[in-house]
Amino acid sequence: MKVLVINCGSSSIKYQLIHTEDKETLCKGLVERIGAVTSIIRQEWKGEKPVKKSLALDNHTIALKTVMELLVDADNDYLSSLDEIEAVGHRVVHGGETFKDSVLIDEDVEEAIQEAFDIAPLHNPPNLQGIRAAKEHLPNVPHVAVFDTAFHQTLPSKAYLYGIPNRLYRRYKIRRYGFHGTSHYYVSRKYYKLADIKKKGSKIITCHLGNGASITAIKDGESIDTSMGFTPLEGLVMGTRSGDIDPSILFYLIEKEELSLANVHALLNKHSGLLGLSGYAADMRDLIEEAEDGDKRSQEAIDVFCYRAKKYIGSYIASMNGVDAIIFTGGIGENSSLIRSKILSDMSSFGIEIDESKNNLSGEKPLISSEDSKVGVYVIPTNEELVIAIDAAKIAITSKQTPWA
Ligand code: ADP
Asked: What is the SS3 assignment for 147?
């Protein structure tokens, strides 16, 4: 089945056309700067050179219309008409406590996504805008929502409750939700296959380290704890997000620097993390280069990043009373042998040892731990879009078979 996967941000749309039986991406694209004077579309068909176009795209509906035109305008046999698209899968960031699995989007689902606007003001509004725009252009196929939070809905209350008055949870649903669920799910399932391991009885830790970063403890195949919380701000130090801090710092700063709520929000989400620590860059590649040239603050930023990740891994080993495997994914996790090595250094008392020669060649084989290591360490590239496409295809098939459900 050919499935279109759509991921809408506030001014961007990422999309992929995926053939689900072949697990193959036929086309991928990115629209950026929607609403600006000039928007940019980059699209790349399998085996072909990327094409880039600049034009004015006022909103998501217009942007998606252009995407649809581009998809059928190609000089290849991958898609001759939009009728060949049999389902659309939408990445939705926040499913609150309502969605434990992917769902066919109807009016009730749209309403529930809207109800979560309050707790996900940056993500859910553009996600819903994308859904509505895509439905306009492809009205006759099932649209399916796949939630970043769904995989973490198995967290027990001892992991998801904060130490604040319980009525705040009951009234406002303030709790840990966790994000990147689709990625943690995908790499864990890949690991079970690769290592030929059964879910039951397994204890693994998945580290998604990209611009956004989170670590998850997965026991018996289920997420039991994760580092992101009520929002994606909590946990690890990220590209521009602070991760965990003492909340009292905010009261102190509001007083000292007379910050507004918007200032505090921007400080923690946009000006902190690797960027804030280094004062130089949010991008790990740039920081590694700069640190190699002797820049002390870039080195410190890398050290804080790695130390925070190490602490989370240690705490999840305690939560599960052990770990069988640690899996790295995301731009940093997949590509930086240096960061993997730093995070897992000096953990031999936990039975964790990396083989540096395998680590440096990780693109070739996923297992990078030494033969003596009791814990397997793996590098597994994530593929969230494939999970979204497969879920959308499954739900599209079921909805055809049981249209009354
Ligand atoms: P996003 O969360 O935006 O999807 P990615 O998963 O693409 O981000 O990760 C982006 C991060 O990965 C950047 O910090 C980038 O520097 C880092 N990265 C990519 N390749 C490498 C590499 N070879 N070495 C170190 N960091 C890398």
From this structure: strand
